[in-house]
């Protein structure tokens, strides 16, 4: 079974957008390997998604090459092959305070997880992806394209991911395709490790500020991942896809 089934590896997949992507592919019949460094989130993910034979959870910090190397080897042993990698792991809070008080260690930690983690994953998964003519999807952000104050470290890592993506596409093609996704506001509350049983509904104004009429969901992102790694996207590589309900196209003025 393992040799015939499609296998996807999702980093940061025990909660948030990553968990939504994992759930999507489990529903499609894929074998899903998940990396996450949060042991509590891994256990919560196991309980929420079910202890399926098609789900394999691995505790790993993507900023540590030893974790990546051993985790990738474990995922491939379990799955028998590797068809796609989603580099979703990242430190999500963009606000690091004023640049003049931003400590180098805080800056470096975001670089290490958000950007270096994707590099290490590519380094160690490429030999396996070549065998299957697979795909890499990097999770960037609309903050690579527009910013709020005090988000320099986060924005730099997400902009770097977009550049890393097109560099990988050129270097690894035609055997391997690489694309990135830049999500906007995605409501992940129900997909967190400490998710409330019934999250408070978002307001009409929250939804209404999006030209699409609503805030995004992890399913919106997962659907784009599914397209990008499919045969229908064989002519698509080196691209960044904005999934934000049109927010980056909307002009906003202060009252």
Automatic annotation (TrEMBL):
Which SUPFAM superfamilies does the entry mention? NAD(P)-binding Rossmann-fold domains (SSF51735)
Top-level taxon in the UniProt lineage: Bacteria
Pfam families listed in its UniProt record = adh_short_C2 (PF13561)
Q: Give positions of region: Disordered.
A: 196-217
Q: Please name the GO terms that the record assigns under molecular function.
A: oxidoreductase activity
State the UniProt keywords alphabetically: Oxidoreductase
Q: Where is the signal peptide?
A: none
> Which Gene3D superfamilies does this entry report, sorted A to Z?
NAD(P)-binding Rossmann-like Domain
Q: Which family does it belong to?
A: Belongs to the short-chain dehydrogenases/reductases (SDR) family.
PANTHER family for the chain: DEHYDROGENASES, SHORT CHAIN, ESTRADIOL 17-BETA-DEHYDROGENASE 8-RELATED
The protein's name in its UniProt record: Oxidoreductase
